[in-house]
Amino acid sequence: MHAEFHQAKIDYHHKGAQTGGYKLIDGEPKAWDLEFCLKRRYPNSSDPVRLNAELFVALRNKVGHRYEHNAKVATGGKAQALFMNYEHEMVSHFGGAFSLACSWVSPLRSMNSSMSSALPLVAWRPELEG
After folding, report:
1. What is the rounded distance in angstroms from the CA atom of residue 13 to the CA atom of residue 30?
2. What is the rounded CA–CA span in Å between residue 96 and residue 8?
3. pTM of the predicted model as reported, rounded to 2 decimal places
4. Sign of CA dihedral 103, 107, 108, 112
5. Which portions of the chain are predicted below pLDDT 50?
6. Residue ranges covered by each domain of the chain
7. For 112-115, which contacts have Cβ atoms below 8 Å and span 24 or more sequence positions?
8. Is 110 exposed, middle or buried (0-12, 13-18, 19+ CB in 10 A)?
9. I need a labelling partner for 52 at 20 to 30 A (CA). Which of 40, 63, 71, 121 fits?
C-alpha cells in the first residue's frame, strides 16, 4: 500500500502533533503500519478486502509463529483470498507487469482476469505437461 500511496503522492508517514515534523525511528520517518494503511485505503469498515486483511493482521499480532501449522490449516482459504486480493490490487493500480501470477512459487494460486497476464500461464502449460 505504501507504493500506491507514493504513486498518488500521499504522504504515508507519521508527523508529530506539536512540531508537525516527521516522527523518526532510527533516523527514518515512521511510516504508517499496515493496519493504519488499511483504514486509509478502505475507509468502509465493512469492506470485505479490508476485513480479510485485518483478520491476518490480528492473527499475526496474536499468535506469531507459535501456532503456525494449525493457523495454516485453519486459514488456508482466507489466505488464498488475501493473496488474490493483493494480486488484484497490484495489477489494477500498477498494471499487468506487476502481476505475481508468473513468478509466485507457492501453494497459493494467482488468477488474474486480464488476458495479457494470463498468456504467460498458457504458454507455460505445455512445458509443465511435457
Report:
1. 5
2. 18
3. 0.53
4. positive
5. 113-130
6. 49-129
7. 112/87, 112/88
8. buried
9. 121
